[in-house]
Amino acid sequence: MKNIVILISGRGSNMEAVVRALDAEHWPARIAAVISNKPDAAGLAFAASRGIPTAVVANKAFATRAAFDAALQETIDRFAPDLVVLAGFMRILTAPFVEHYADRMLNIHPSLLPLFPGLHTHEAALAAGHAEHGATVHFVTPELDHGPVVAQARIPVHPGDTPDLLAQRLLTEEHKLYPYAIRLFVEDRLIIEQGDVRILEASSI
Ligand code: GAR
Fold first, then answer.
1. What kind of fold does domain 2-204 have according to CATH?
2. Residue nearest atom 8 of ligand 1, based on CA coordinates
3. Which of 121, 174, 177, 178 to mutate to test the pocket of ligand 1 (most atoms within 8 A of CB)?
4. 181 neighbors 106 (Cβ within 8 angstroms)
5. Is 151 left (phi over 0), alpha (psi -120 to 50) or beta?
6. What is the pLDDT of residues 122-172, one digit of tens each?
């Protein structure tokens, strides 16, 4: 049984999709905690309603990034995580924090990485005139929105699309992609080899 700690900053719809998939598909895992850096993150209420322990480590209360990350790490580690899941966790993380969770921290990013790291990815995809947009689940490494890619979801860009329309359509795909990728981790099917992820067949385990 693997312990998963999920970090959110707001709505938490990806966290919700993971919780629902874990329950419906009976993964050999439990959500040990949902932790937010924002006291008013909407997703905390959903987690609490499912009986999941919640915690807030407010970044505003800390003078430095390093002090916040240290406090966050201490809170996360109380739940003995096998996996830390960033689900709309809108923080730049320090290298020591990332290294502490090396090969056991995943992020979902709303672009087809390596395209468009950082913020405003939907605007960027439209401005670039790309016919396709998407989302990426990757292992977290110290460089922002880099790191070995586990899986991607793709959507077509339609004429007349706006950043909001794209974000909305992509979110539906994120809600399938993230549970898929996390389940692979839970089932020990992800191997990181020289910076690339290899997915083991279910039957080879
Ligand atoms: C999602 O679209 C996620 O991909 C994005 O924030 C949204 C969170 O929504 N993450 C990032 O931009 C990380 N750089 P949610 O809170 O409803 O899951």
1. Rossmann fold (3.40.50)
2. 88
3. 174
4. yes
5. beta
6. 999 999 999 999 999 999 999 999 999 999 999 999 999 999 999 999 999
